[in-house]
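Take our chain:
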Amino acid sequence: MNGAEILLVEDNPHDEELTVRALRRYHVANKIHVLRDGEEVVECLFGAGRESGACANTRLILLDLKLPKMDGLEILRRCKSDSHTKHIPIVVLTSSREESDLTRSYNLGANSYVVKPVDFLQFNEAVRQIGLYWMLLNQIPLER
């Protein structure tokens, strides 16, 4: 199997490290691919290598909203409007508590919106639960 199972879109190195560590600790995914800005996401999901590249087998996208080059809301809009990516669950994992971000995320098709806990143990637990639910319990269509 090529490509990532979880696509983590996160520009904060500290949050990236905490998220990857929590997912690996609980053996939630075999492959995690990290992208740090919106343009990288567009290239990975919609570029020339989309069928065989690092994003080809993405089963879950963990998406931060505040990203360089292209924000998470635009990525969310593009993913949910494309026939190849619209069925991939997208969990917005952000520090934003703004009601407008929450509302816009759901209006654009987010499957879940989680505010990153500040406390290390709570952050770890939140990522564990997200991973277990979306990777082990939730079912998505095989044909996309």
